[in-house]
């Protein structure tokens, strides 16, 4: 009889363990969707994550707009004429002067030729349009602020230059906006 009681105890222990394990799996199955929905979704993660841009196909004088953290940014490959005009411009021409070489970027070892700036006017946040007239790079269609090819404010109600986002060139052909780590 003691042998039979031992079999019952073993069977009972097995049923307790199996029932507990099944219950744990059921609780985890119910809890997982509830917990995972509390985190950021893929769109929110993408909005804050660095944006990698292949700039190899962009030609001199061409501009692209990229979105990072829900805001537009201009990436403009400057022509030699635009770079010279920016370098030769006098401090007195600007409302918020900053040397052009501090606003023109390049991959390590490459010639600086990239203007990478926020695409919202610093007056009221309008999106400026591209201009192709030497030093002038963008004009705000709403209130007339004019920015040079590097995003420095020349005139109009905009109080400061177009901000520079954090960025790094991973290679000569790959720009990453949203990180300042090399």
Highlighted features:
Rieske Iron-sulfur Protein, four-stranded antiparallel β-sheet, 11 strands, alpha+beta, 182 residues
Q: Averaged pLDDT, please?
A: 81
> Would you identify the CATH architecture of the largest domain?
3-layer Sandwich
- Which radius of gyration do the C-alpha atoms yield? 29 Å
Terminal Cα separation, in Å?
76 Å
Number of helices: 3
Major sheet strand order? 2-3-5-4
* H-E string: HHEEEHEEEEEEEE
**Beta-strand percent range:** 25-35%
- Class derived from helix and strand content: alpha+beta
Backbone shape: elongated
Number of separate structural domains: 2
CATH topology of the largest domain: Rieske Iron-sulfur Protein
Mind describing the biggest β-sheet?
4 strands, antiparallel
Helix fraction by DSSP (H/I, runs of at least 4): 25-40%
Quick one: how many beta strands?
Answer: 11
Low-confidence parts:
none
User: CATH homologous superfamily of the largest domain?
Assistant: Rieske [2Fe-2S] iron-sulphur domain
The top level CATH class name of the largest domain = Mainly Beta
Task: Give me the secondary-structure topology.
Blueprint: H1 2-36, H2 42-48, E1 51-54, E2 63-68, E3 71-77, H3 80-88, E4 104-105, E5 114-118, E6 129-133, E7 136-139, E8 146-148, E9 153-155, E10 167-171, E11 174-177
Antiparallel strand pairs: 1-11, 2-3, 3-5, 4-5, 6-7, 7-8, 8-9, 10-11
Q: How would you explain this protein's 3D organization?
A:
The strands form three sheets. This protein has a four-stranded antiparallel sheet. Helices cover 28% and strands 26% of the residues. It has 182 residues and is of the alpha+beta class. The chain has helices at 2-36, 42-48, 80-88, and strands at residues 51-54, 63-68, 71-77, 104-105, 114-118, 129-133, 136-139, 146-148, 153-155, 167-171, 174-177. The chain has two domains: 1-39; 45-177, Rieske [2Fe-2S] iron-sulphur domain (Rieske Iron-sulfur Protein).
């Amino acid at each position: 009889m003691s042998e039979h009681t031992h079999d019952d105890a073993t069977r009972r222990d097995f049923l307790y363990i199996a029932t507990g394990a099944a219950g744990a799996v059921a609780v985890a199955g119910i809890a997982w969707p509830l917990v995972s929905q509390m985190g950021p979704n893929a769109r929110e993660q993408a909005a804050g994550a660095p944006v990698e841009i292949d700039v190899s196909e962009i030609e001199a004088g061409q501009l692209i707009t990229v979105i990072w953290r829900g805001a537009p940014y201009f990436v403009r490959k400057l022509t030699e004429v635009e770079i010279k005009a920016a370098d030769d411009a006098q401090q007195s021409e600007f409302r918020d002067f900053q040397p052009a070489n501090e606003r023109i970027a390049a991959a390590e070892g490459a010639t600086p030729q990239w203007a990478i700036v926020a695409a919202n006017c610093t007056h009221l946040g309008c999106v400026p349009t591209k201009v192709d007239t030497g030093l002038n790079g963008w004009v705000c269609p709403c209130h007339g602020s004019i920015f040079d090819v590097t995003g420095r404010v020349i005139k109009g109600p905009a109080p400061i230059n177009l901000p520079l986002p954090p960025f790094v060139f991973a290679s000569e052909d790959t720009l990453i906006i949203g990180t300042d780590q090399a």
